[in-house]
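Propose amino acids for all 274 sites.
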C-alpha cells in the first residue's frame, strides 16, 4: 500500500520521528493509510539513525513516504524541525510511531481547526491499547509537581492532590476544553501560527519540547485545545519508567532545568491574538 502522489496543495503533513521502532512505525503508517480519507496529505518519517533496519522496511512497504535519514540521534525536537522545514501541509500532525490512527480521527481534528481559527494546537484524546483513557493533557509544571512526579516522592505520595491536579484526573475528558499543554506524541499544529524558523526548541533533546511549544503559543495569544472527538491509540513506550535511574530520567530532569531557566516563571504571559 502506498500514499497517493498528488501535486495539489496539502492540507496535512504528518511527521513521524523514528528511532529503532521497526515494526511499531510500520503499524503506525499502515493506520494512516487505512484511516485518512478525503484529505490531501503527506507523511514525513525522520529517522534518528536506527540500527534495526527500520529504513529498509519503510522503503520497501511505503514508497511514497518522504524519508529523512540522520547519521546520528539528533533528539526529538531537532528531528521534528527537519520535517517541519520541508512540510507542505497547512496543518501539521506530530505523531509518535507508537500511535495508531483511528477512523475519522484526522478529519474531525482538521474540521475543528478550520472552524476555530484562534486554535494553534489541538490535542486528541489518547487511549491505552486496552481502551482505557490516557491522561494526556496536563497543567504546567511547578517545582512541587516535578518533585512529586519524577523523584522518590512519587512512591511516598502517589495520590497527592498536586499530581491529580497536574494530570487533570478530575476533568471530564469527554468535553473539549482549553488546556495548558499535552503530550507531543500526538499533536495537531496550525502551521501559520509558527513564526520562528524552527517549530520546536532544539535545546530540548528529549522531553519538555511539547511543554515549551504550548507555552510559546499561549504567550502569543493562541489557544491549546483538548479535543476528545478525535481519538487515537497510544501504546506509550515509557522507557523512563524502567529502573530507578536511567538516561531517560536524566534527560527529563535536564530538560526541566532548561525549561525553568528559559522561562523563569510558572505561567506564560498571554497576549491577545489579533
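Proposal:
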Amino acid at each position: 500500500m502506498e500514499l497517493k502522489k498528488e501535486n495539489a496543495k496539502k492540507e496535512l503533513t504528518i511527521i513521524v520521528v523514528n528511532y529503532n521502532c521497526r515494526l511499531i512505525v510500520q503499524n503506525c503508517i499502515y493506520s494512516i493509510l487505512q484511516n485518512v480519507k478525503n484529505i490531501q496529505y503527506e507523511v514525513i518519517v525522520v529517522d534518528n539513525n536506527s540500527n534495526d533496519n527500520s529504513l529498509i522496511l519503510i522503503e520497501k512497504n511505503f514508497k511514497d513516504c518522504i524519508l529523512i535519514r540522520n547519521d546520528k540521534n539528533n533528539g526529538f525536537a531537532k528531528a521534528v524541525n527537519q520535517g517541519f522545514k520541508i512540510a507542505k501541509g497547512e496543518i501539521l500532525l506530530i505523531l509518535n510511531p507508537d500511535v495508531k490512527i483511528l477512523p475519522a480521527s484526522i478529519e474531525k481534528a482538521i474540521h475543528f481547526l478550520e472552524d476555530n481559527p484562534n486554535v494553534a494546537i489541538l490535542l486528541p484524546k489518547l487511549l491505552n491499547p486496552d481502551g482505557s483513557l490516557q491522561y494526556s493533557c496536563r497543567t504546567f509544571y511547578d517545582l512541587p509537581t516535578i518533585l512529586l512526579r519524577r523523584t522518590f516522592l512519587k512512591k511516598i505520595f502517589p495520590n497527592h492532590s498536586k499530581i491529580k491536579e497536574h494530570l487533570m484526573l478530575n476533568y471530564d475528558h469527554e468535553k473539549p476544553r482549553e488546556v495548558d499543554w499535552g503530550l507531543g506524541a500526538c499533536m495537531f499544529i496550525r502551521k501559520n501560527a509558527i513564526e520562528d524558523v524552527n517549530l520546536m526548541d532544539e535545546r530540548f533533546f528529549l522531553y519538555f519540547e511539547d511543554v515549551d511549544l504550548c507555552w510559546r503559543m499561549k504567550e502569543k495569544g493562541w489557544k491549546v485545545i483538548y479535543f476528545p472527538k478525535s481519538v487515537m491509540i497510544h501504546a506509550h513506550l515509557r522507557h523512563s519508567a524502567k529502573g530507578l535511574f536511567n538516561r531517560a530520567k536524566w534527560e527529563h530532569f535536564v530538560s526541566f532545568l532548561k525549561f525553568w531557566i528559559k522561562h523563569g516563571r510558572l505561567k506564560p504571559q498571554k497576549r491577545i491574538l489579533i
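The first helix runs from residue 22 to 35. The mean pLDDT is 88.
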